[in-house]
Amino acid sequence: MHKDNQAEARRKARVRRSIRARAYGKPRLSVHRTSKQIYAQIIDDEKGATLVAASSLEKDQRAALKTGADVEAAKAIGKLIAQRAAEKGIKDVVFDRGAFVYHGRVKALADGAREGGLNF
Predict the structure, then answer these.
(1) How confident is the model at residue 75, as a pLDDT?
(2) Long-range interactions of 1-4: CB distance < 8 A, separation 24+
(3) Which residues of 58-96 are buried (b: 16+ CB within 10 A; e: fewer)?
(4) Could you tell me the maximum CA-CA distance found in the chain, to the nearest angstrom?
């Protein structure tokens, strides 16, 4: 494994370890971003199942957004995941940024989810 991949894996494991310590049975809002898209999903770790998912690759999002790789797209995906979570009766989650810094698109997605009604 390349040393950059090892560092990323360590960061991700460190974040997940701290999330599990303070989750208290809440589902986890996991964020993944690439250079062109952003993805979010709410995961129940006890069952190992994805409860809700949203991404900038969805057809209606691709039509509405200029690109999937900017702050506006991340905020829209955050609002969408919050709306879908509310439909399933999910209000409280823990935020999992993975190995990504809480800045820019990751922060915009979190702010959009909070505006949509999720608590974390």
Answers:
(1) 97
(2) none
(3) eeebeeebeebbbeebbbbbbbbbbebbeeeebeebbbb
(4) 42
CA angle 67, 72, 78 (to 5 degrees): 110
Q: Which two tokens stand for residue 53?
A: 């998912």
- Cα–Cα distance between 14 and 16 in angstroms, integer? 6
CA dihedral 78, 86, 42, 39 (to 10 degrees): -30
All domains of the chain, ordered by start, with CATH?
A: 3-116 (3.30.420.100)
Tell me how far apart the alpha carbons of residues 62 and 24 are, in angstroms, rounded to a whole number.
Answer: 36
Quick check: 41 and 113 in contact, CB under 8 A? Answer: no
- Does the model's pTM come out above 0.85? yes
pLDDT of 6-60, one tens digit each?
Answer: 999 999 999 989 998 888 889 999 999 999 999 999 999 999 999 999 999 999 9
Question: Which amino acid, one-letter code, is at 26?
Answer: K
